[in-house]
Design brief:
Blueprint: E1 8-12, E2 20-26, E3 32-39, E4 42-49, E5 52-61, E6 68-82, E7 92-105, E8 108-117, E9 120-127, E10 137-142, E11 149-154, E12 157-164, H1 165-170, E13 178-179, E14 182-185, E15 191-197, E16 209-213, E17 218-224, E18 232-233, E19 236-242, H2 253-256, E20 272-276, H3 295-307, E21 312-315, E22 320-324, E23 327-330, H4 336-346, E24 349-355, H5 366-372, E25 377-381, H6 387-399, E26 403-406, H7 416-419, E27 423-426, H8 441-449, H9 466-470, H10 488-497, E28 502-505, H11 509-513, H12 516-524, E29 532-539, E30 543-550, E31 553-560, E32 564-569, E33 579-585, E34 600-606, E35 611-616, E36 621-628
Parallel strand pairs: 20-21, 20-28, 21-24, 24-25, 25-26, 26-27
Antiparallel strand pairs: 1-6, 2-3, 3-4, 4-5, 5-10, 6-7, 7-8, 8-9, 9-18, 9-19, 10-17, 11-12, 11-14, 13-16, 14-15, 15-19, 16-17, 22-23, 29-30, 30-31, 31-36, 32-35, 33-34, 33-36
Pfam families: GH97_C, GH97_N, Glyco_hydro_97
Protein name: Alpha-glucosidase
Domain Glycosyl-hydrolase 97 catalytic: 280-427
């Protein structure tokens, strides 16, 4: 870890009175400010961004109903740089100002840490003594303006919103439980995201949800401490602040406040791309072969992966029939030992699914058993949103040198990829075609701009044979025919736009082989090991354009709901250098409903300052691969 650290500390003491003078702490660039004050025994904060009041007069407490006294405070300034094991950036700057506030809740000591970053703020409590007669709860209000609009994840459904705060205050019929990461759009078109980070380091707490309190007129979260321990540390409660909604996706505050890497030697952790069998069952190739749960099907996946630099092959459910602790009875449909040996010979790593509904789960024998099969990782299904179990599963999988991918509504442990980088991805979204449905282009944009804020997503983008899916030629495809509205180019773009440590592409090898010139974009782009990432354009329900750099190569993916042209300025390229650019584009004939697989690939040269007109059809996409000439 490379560190450049500057720390400045000094101690401030407040007057011992009911209403104590407020503290003000600003971000390093001065654009984000927190005002913290004690009003009649209640600690309150206000958040200002660009001198605009974003969150007003909002209570924050660990013991509601008890009066708090501020005994003193210490201020620190920190500026350091660290390198993640993998991520959207190869190096991350951790630059913040911090206020360490010493509190007393009617005889109960507590410490509140407040950090201000250029991109947001974070709050955490630490209690070293908890009386048996008192149960703490991390209570926090968010005093948002009436004109602010909210967007929230909705599990496997389309994220909902916009819902105005004014509407919540005036209508009794709206009873939403808002989930993190909550996105707030202000009347000034500035954007907040409300979430938490480092839950993995805070035993005794569950995932936060948000409710609207009509009495106070504020959005609130109230996370109760459920442990019998006599001390606690809370997760960081985070508020991100950006002028552009797309910048919420590359905001590093949630990672910066998370605990550092806990794996001594993470060299075995390799992000990458994986083929996947589940959505291909029933697909018939042109040579007459039909895919299923059998050795020949898996050999075909492994062969294509080996020939096209795909690191992994993921085998989903039904490879076993019975579960005992540390032992599974293999399905008679295939000989898994032969598949494992074949993959070893071809240099392809295997990932293996596990469904906890089919037997004992969470026992310490499971992960060593997967390791004994020479698996690289586990896809864990139906674990429920159980925080203690999820925390332990991540730790135990790390002990067995296994990557772990959580399926089916997992815990959004934001920041965990810094602490346990083997937690490679999770399906905190509606994965494409999941529940045998197909999501719309608008739903993709919403999940890309909302769900993805909490961390890497396993969304299963990358369908190339769209016509086959829409014709119902897949056993696990959507129940409704012709319900997948997308284009082949949009599918390629989505694999870049959605950040993940494991990009799971769901189509048959033959579907990719027939479009190898388009598949080149997926094949050439690295996964998870980016030097730089930025969102060039983003608008809710409309479009998104994401650029990622690896070395001197740039990969850019864009999608558009209604269709249109985005101006992509190449001002991020180096001066006095020529670049080769490969365009992967929708054509004049492409139609996301009637002709989704039409595309074109062309090569040209560009330089810094050029502007690319990225033209897309409705539901379509646009991709670019730029590298030095």
């Amino acid at each position: 870890m490379k560190k450049l650290v500057f720390v400045l500390s000094f101690v401030l003491t407040l007057y011992n009175c009911t209403n104590q003078k407020p503290y003000e702490i600003a971000s390093p660039n001065g654009q984000v400010k927190i005002l913290l004050e004690n009003k009649d025994g209640d600690l309150q904060y206000s958040l200002f961004g660009n001198d605009i009041d974003m969150v007003s007069n909002s209570k924050i407490s660990m013991f509601q109903g008890l009066k708090v006294e501020v005994l003193g405070a210490k201020s620190n300034q920190v500026n350091e740089t660290w390198r993640p094991v993998w991520g959207q950036f190869s190096e991350i700057n951790d630059n913040y100002n911090e206020l360490e506030v010493i509190l007393d809740y009617e005889g109960i000591p507590a410490t509140l840490y407040v950090r201000t970053y250029n991109g947001g703020v974070a709050f955490r409590f630490n209690l070293s003594e908890i009386p048996e007669s008192k149960k703490p709860a991390f209570f926090m209000e968010y005093g948002l303006a009436e004109t602010s609009s909210l967007y929230s994840p909705a599990g496997e459904g389309k994220p909902f919103g916009p819902i105005q705060i004014e509407t919540l205050r005036t209508r009794d019929s709206i009873k939403h439980r808002f989930k993190m990461p909550l996105v707030v759009e202000t009347a000034q078109k500035q954007y907040l995201s409300l979430l938490e980070s480092d839950l993995v380091s805070a035993p005794g707490f569950n995932v936060i949800n948000f409710n609207f309190d009509k009495q106070s007129g504020n959005l609130v979260s109230n996370n109760k401490f459920t442990s019998d321990e006599k001390k606690l540390i809370t997760p960081w409660r985070v508020i991100l602040f950006e002028n552009n909604i797309g910048d919420l996706l590359t905001n590093t505050v949630p990672l910066n406040v998370a605990a550092p890497n806990q794996i001594n030697d993470p060299s075995w952790i390799k992000p990458g791309k994986t083929l996947w069998d589940w959505r291909v069952h029933g697909y018939q190739a042109k040579d007459g072969f039909t895919y299923g749960i059998d050795n020949e099907s898996y050999y075909r996946f492994i062969d294509f992966a080996a020939e096209n630099d795909i690191e992994y092959f993921l085998i989903d459910d039904a490879w076993y029939t019975d579960v005992e602790p540390g032992k599974m009875t293999m399905s008679d449909k295939l000989d898994l030992d032969k598949v494992i040996k074949y993959a070893e010979e071809k240099g392809v790593e295997l990932l293996l699914y596990y469904d906890r509904r089919q037997g004992s789960y969470g026992d310490e024998a499971l992960f060593p058993y997967y390791k004994s099969l020479n698996m690289k990782g586990i896809k864990y299904g139906f674990m429920s949103s159980n925080v203690p179990f999820t925390r332990e599963a991540i730790r135990m999988s790390a002990e067995s040198n296994l990557l772990i991918n959580f399926h089916d509504g997992p815990v959004p442990l934001t920041g965990v990829t810094r602490t346990f980088p083997n937690a490679i991805t999770r399906e905190f979204c509606h994965a494409q075609q999941d529940s045998r449905r197909a999501f719309t282009p608008q739903t993709f944009i919403r999940m890309a701009l909302i769900n993805a804020i909490q961390g890497p997503l396993d969304m299963n983008n990358g369908v190339f044979d769209i016509s086959s899916v829409n014709a119902g030629e897949r056993e696990k495809g959507p129940k409704k025919l012709n319900s997948l509205q997308t284009t082949s180019v949009a599918e390629a773009a989505r694999t870049l736009i959605i950040f993940s440590g494991l990009v799971c592409i769901p189509d048959a090898p033959e579907a990719y082989a027939e479009k190898l010139d388009l598949f080149e974009f997926i094949q050439e782009m690295p996964v998870g090991e980016w030097d730089e990432s930025k969102v060039l354009h983003a608008k809710m329900d409309s479009h998104i354009s994401t650029a990622r750099r690896s070395g001197d190569d740039w990969f850019i993916g864009s999608v558009h709901v209604e269709g249109g042209t985005l101006d992509i300025s190449l001002d991020f390229l180096k001066e006095n250098k020529n670049y080769i650019i490969t365009y992967y584009e929708d054509t004049e004939d492409t139609n996301s409903i009637t002709n989704p697989e039409a595309y074109q690939v062309r090569i040209a040269t560009v330089k810094k300052g050029d502007v690319v007109k990225a033209k897309m059809v409705s539901g379509g996409g646009h991709c670019m691969w730029i590298r030095p000439e």
